[in-house]
Queue: 3 jobs
Job 1
Amino acid sequence: MAADPITVVIVEDNDVFRELLEVLLGTVPDVEVVAAVGDGRSALEVCGRLTPDVVLMDYRLPELDGVETTAAIGERWPGTAVVVLTATAETEELDALCEAGAVACLTKDRELDEIVGAVRDAAGRGAALR
């Protein structure tokens, strides 16, 4: 019997990149995108409703930025892991994301296999897999 898929919420303000990521992750059998939103406040709302295994988080977001949103997710849903996907980030920004609780930080130009690997690793670090 196959394990339940890893549930993922995508948080990305670039509509085209968000939709592309959703389509690409939709081709991965053990990953299920349960929501895709464009800002930090919406991310907190869907995490409260869905409690995903992993959140793929952009750094630069309207409303709440990636650091604020990552910290809030960690406080409210400690079993949900955050993997940051960012175009560019300075060392200080990466440090802030790690301090906020991100388990990995990748640049958006990574191959899909690397992103999926980070999602799988993050899911293994969260609460017991469902």
Job 2
Amino acid sequence: MQGKNILVVGGSSGIGLGLVKELSSQSANVYVVSRSSHPLFDELANVFYTQMDITEADLDFSFIPKQLDGIVYCPGTINLKPFHRISIQEFKNDWEINVMGAIKTLQANLRPLKNAKGASVVLFSTVASTLGMGFHASIATAKAGVEGLAKSLAAEWAFQKIRVNVIAPSITNTPLAENLLSKPEKREASAKRHPLQRIGEIDDMVNATMFLLSEKSNWITGQTLNIDGGMSKIKML
């Protein structure tokens, strides 16, 4: 990663923040976009923060250098309700943050990705897009859109040597999932739903993302990598 230019959208918390720290430690130039800053941004080497609300109509990415070696789009939502109680506006909000934000980011930065002549894009989905899970209608719909977008762009951009892949986590110990893991009994119940008997940690997702950004994965594109303790593929007896 040394000297690579990487854009991380949603890098002030959770998986995004963990990724920013790891990229900085490997001497990448990290361009962070999020609604709010983080004190660590002033301490980490080669981290450049820009405040931005990804749901706004007009996004200014003029600060991005002419060559961009990777984009990681991390924003996510957890809005778990019975289908009949999810408002149309909530469906729209989940779609705007998860799908439209990614579309706007990628459209605005296509030229710098092309200039890298070998860039990598990593988007985030959820295990719920593959595995039918009650009360996940809004987020599963939005993240399924993310996976469809990634496959289409992987095909369209392959000749330009831009790879596009997706990471689909199960529940991960991040601030976004704080309410779902707020008590020991909740954490234990969540862990038991996974074949590997634990919930995800930020490092699990960071390690997978670093692999997809690196040249070690340069023959991988159009894929959804399930980082979920086996939940999406294994049924325990």
Job 3
Amino acid sequence: MEQEPIKIVIKEDEAAPFVPENGGRDVKGRVGEAAKKAWRSEARKKVTRGVRKGAAAVAAKGGQAAQAAVVQRAEDQARQRVERAKTRIRETDWKAEAKTGTGRGLRWLSQKLARLAERVNQSQIEEKTPEDLT
């Protein structure tokens, strides 16, 4: 059995070139009009509002997270300072500190008393008359 070749016949009506239904408006104009219509649509406005709200929420959460991190770090540093101060207080030899402080205080007092004694002696010498010296 031999097969017969298939023939495709195109009628004259079907071979006519494509003519747009809108009277020949160009594609660019239609695309621009469709874009304007989409931009003005309520759906686009809703999506834009949602994106803005979402972005604001993300920014707010990010700000809160950053603030929490800063606060946490400040608290940690304060705790560390307190611990260092406690350690320094525990490790300080208070007996030696007291001796050193007392020694400084006594030296200062001794200097002041020496100056006072000089002033008293000086005034006694000035009060004596030449008759008292003979």
